[in-house]
Amino acid sequence: MPRIEDNARDEHFWHAITQRYDLAPGPINLENGYFGRMTRGVAQDYQRNIEFINRSNSVHVRQCFDQTQNLDIRNQLADMLKVNHASIALTNCASDALQSLIRNYQGLQPGDQLLICDLEYHSVEYAMRWVAQQRGLEVIEITHRHPATYESLLESYRQAFAQHPRIKLMALTHVTHRTGLVLPVQAIVELANAHGVDVILDGAHALGQIDFDLPAMGVAFAGYNLHKWIGAPLTLGFMYIDPQRLADIAPDMGNQRYPEPDIRNRSPYGTANIAAWLTLPKVLQEHTDLGGAKAKGARLKYVRDLWVGEARKLPGIEVLTPDDPRLNCAITSLRFTHVDDQQPMVERLLKDYNLFTVAREGSACGSCIRITVGFATTLDDINQLIRALRELAQG
């Protein structure tokens, strides 16, 4: 049986995987971090479920989905993650889960402090600032040193906890959406716990491309997406709460749809995309058959390293994401050093080279271009990117 590392370089194998996706003509998509494509098989299953729910309507939903199917699907997801079934509630996306966890966290008193960093997702940052305003709290924001190292990331949090002893709750992003930096979650959580600080983990970009053990990381509260690297239809995410910590999160907006204690009361209540949820078993089966996050992540990092290795040789380009394999994934950012605003370079990549990327702002390291390979990215696509970077780096 081939090693995962060898399989990541097997172009014949991955060409066959690429053929499972229907690709529209047009620009080469190097913005796969927004949301992932469904395979053809998943898209067909989703379409069948849309038609089925449309035909059966509330009869099936009331009698089957609401009664048992939603729990069966939830339990399959929990089994994949090797967590307690009662620790997961279905949501529309990671942001819904994270905002609910933040606004309903009960362990805060006026004068307490909340901790965020310059790499949080906007909806998480906004929620933390809103809670601070509503409850008379102080927000502490730290800036990670650039370029980041494993030790510098830990040191940032050591200093924050030492300098601000009233921190009670912090946001932590597993994979940052701006630069693709992967934070050492388990080590940071251990530091936080030692200082009596609870962590709410943003795992939106991690699930499906990072091989992690959720219970072993020591995280009590987290939110995840299923429509990025798992390959599910849009509008699927979930909330995780360690069952022993359920009482620390109040029911969302007083939700009492289910008898307490039940994590589903912590999820925002509303009509779900039922057809999408009925498709999830197919998605999880394909994900598992492919080798899960270990195999997917190895392929993505291999393809990522092909272009990053060349880009680092080019004067005029700064790659912002570290090469330490513990700290990177499919998402990697760069900047052209001869310009401050990277948006015109994004436009040139598209206009002159047919490469679709996205500019990102907000981190302390400044404006950057996010380049995210995907499962359908080919070596020809990577060669086109390398050619573009060589030519554009010359100014």
Automatic annotation (TrEMBL):
Alphabetized InterPro entries for the sequence: Aminotrans_V_dom, PyrdxlP-dep_Trfase, PyrdxlP-dep_Trfase_major, PyrdxlP-dep_Trfase_small
Signal peptide: none
Name of the protein in its database record: Aminotransferase class V-fold PLP-dependent enzyme
Stored Pfam families: Aminotran_5 (PF00266)
Location of the Aminotransferase class V domain: 68-385
Keywords: Aminotransferase, Pyridoxal phosphate, Transferase
UniProt-listed SUPFAM superfamilies: PLP-dependent transferases
UniProt GO MF annotations: transaminase activity
The species this protein was found in: Pseudomonas weihenstephanensis
